[in-house]
Amino acid sequence: MTDSIALTMSVGVAEFGPDGNELKALLSVADHRLYQGKAEGHNRVIWRLASQQELSFSSAPTAEAS
Predict the structure, then answer these.
(1) What does the pLDDT look like over 10-65, one tens digit per residue?
(2) What was the pLDDT predicted at 25?
(3) Radius of gyration for the chain, computed over Cα atoms and rounded to the nearest angstrom
(4) Which residues fall within 8 angstroms of residue 46, CB to CB, at 6 or more apart?
(5) Taking CA 14 as the corner, what is the angle to CA 10 and CA 24, rounded to the nearest 5 degrees?
(6) In this predicted model, what pLDDT tens digit does every residue of 1-17 receive, in sequence order?
(7) Please, what is the Cα angle at 36 between 43 and 30, to 5 degrees?
(8) How far is CA 23 from each of CA 4, 32, 61, rounded to the nearest angstrom?
(9) Residue 1 CB coordination number (10 Å)
(10) Distances 39 to 1, 55, 61, 63 between C-alpha atoms, Å
């Protein structure tokens, strides 16, 4: 018998400089993006490039062979 656990992961990324220069500001931005990723359906990484365009990437669940 094989046991399996389904995990999801959402990540909010903040960049020193464009998103802030102090730890408190960076954590706030990363936290906001983390919860944005969760609201978009989990399995997301949310960050922003220097162009200010926010990006969201998702990892779609894969079907496992029995």
Answers:
(1) 889 998 988 899 999 999 999 998 888 888 887 888 877 555 556 666 665 544 44
(2) 93
(3) 15
(4) 10, 11, 12, 13, 33, 34, 36, 37, 40, 54, 55, 56
(5) 110
(6) 688 988 888 889 998 98
(7) 95
(8) 37, 14, 33
(9) 2
(10) 34, 14, 17, 23
